[in-house]
From TrEMBL:
Residue ranges constituting the HTH tetR-type domain according to the UniProt record: 6-66
Pfam families: TetR_N
Gene Ontology MF terms: DNA binding
Name of the protein: Transcriptional regulator
The keyword DNA-binding belongs to this UniProt entry's keyword annotation: yes
Keyword terms, alphabetized: DNA-binding
Source organism of the structure: Mesorhizobium mediterraneum
DNA-binding region positions on the chain: 29-48
Domain of life: Bacteria
Transmembrane segments: none
Gene3D superfamilies in alphabetical order: Tetracycline Repressor, domain 2
Keyword tRNA-binding: no
Amino acid sequence: MVKRAENARERFEAAAYSLFRQQGYAATTVPEIAAEAGLTERTFYRYFTDKREVMFWRAGDHQVTIANEIARARAGVHPLTMVARAFESVAPFIDGHRAIVKLRQRLIFTHGDLQERELMKLHKLASAIDLALQQQGIRPSFSRAVAEIGAAIWKVALENWHADETEKPFSSHVQAALTEFQAGLHQVAG
């Protein structure tokens, strides 16, 4: 039986970001990440398919957290408000890991393969939101539209959070993106 290394994912993640910061994403190799983490390359591949995935593995955990928050939402709350509040549930992680999340965003902005992976993760996030909203009784066509808008709000909020030199919390950027979207709808309708 294969023994699992304690906190291996976190160790690989910390090592990868340290190396990405020092020598750049493109110049960093899996063997270097493994050595920096004090683990083997073979162990790396038990947890990740490639070095890109080190930057995206937490997305699944965030999706589960967001979907669970939507499932706990009170009846009568607008679905888009449910989604925005669910996003706020991961704000403590984002704000608490500011340096790593900002580095991650910078790397995504500058590497096409990471942008592609990010789009795939956003699609999965929208699908998880869609399913959670349907389980709340929202009809499928409307839940899908809200989920896609929600994923766009997530993306805008994260981009604005990344660019914010005053370091406002992520939740304030989620609310600002939602408010701006809603105001834009009223302008178009008015």
